[in-house]
Amino acid sequence: MTRPHRQDAPHAVLWDMDGTLVDTEPAWIAAEFALAEVHGGSWSEEHALSLVGNDLMTSARYIREHMGIDLPHEQIVDELLAQVVDAVRREVPWRPGARELLLGHVERGIPAALVTMSYRRFAQAVIDALPEDTFAAIVVGDEVDNGKPHPEPYLAAAALLGTDPAHCLAIEDSATGAASAEAAGCTVLVVPNHVEVPTSPRRVFRPDLAGLEVAELTAMMRP
């Protein structure tokens, strides 16, 4: 039995960043391989893809163990961030249709929040490439106690916007991020990128965001 669509527009759209708004995963993967080369470790594409959607300290612990490098977790994060921030400052790799949809729904009065497990200094490189005050709320990985897949990031974003997560549409590309948003009570628009994402009654799937109209977001909302 198909569950009926909600008839009200989302009160807010909560955006994941890496892989959803911008395609920075290749930059992260390149930075991980560079880290392994500089410090005499070993790395693989399989290891890299297993980190998609994780908060950075979780990734750093995984990297230290599986890359075989004897570095503090904080140093691993700092070295990765330095490389990726530099790449994004040179050119922001927007995902197809993402920037247009973001600016379109904000212009129509549906507020946006950025919900990313990247740290603020990296998120700022993307925020700076958008019109001022595009995001009404920003939740970043170094300012929450529990990263995705815990619901805290999305619960925090909804609270900052003063709305119920059940009335929010989250946009995600990873299983980790989708689990976080769904656990918070959001409807999740999943746009898979580098990893597969399981289906769920509260998840709507599209191959990309190109050509997606703001008016279409209403039909995606789940009760």
Description:
By secondary structure, the chain is an alpha/beta fold. It folds into two domains: 12-23 and 93-220, Rossmann fold, CATH 3.40.50.1000; 25-90, DNA polymerase, domain 1 (Orthogonal Bundle), CATH 1.10.150. Helix content is 42%, strand content 10%. It has helices at residues 25-39, 45-50, 56-68, 73-90, 98-107, 120-127, 152-161, 175-184, 217-220; strands at 12-15, 112-115, 137-139, 168-172, 187-190, 203-205. Strands 3-2-1-4-5-6 form a six-stranded parallel beta sheet. Helix 1 (25-39) crosses helix 4 (73-90), helix 3 packs across helix 4 and helix 4 runs parallel beside helix 6.
Task: Supply database-style keywords.
223 residues; Rossmann fold; DNA polymerase, domain 1; 42% helix
**Largest beta sheet, briefly?**
6 strands, parallel
Q: What is the average per-residue confidence, as pLDDT, rounded to a whole number?
A: 93
User: What is the share of helical residues?
Assistant: 40-55%
Total individual domains = 2
Q: Give the helix tally.
A: 9
CATH topology of the largest domain: Rossmann fold
Measured by DSSP, the beta-strand proportion falls in 5-15%
- Strand order in the largest sheet: 3-2-1-4-5-6
Low-confidence stretches: 1-6
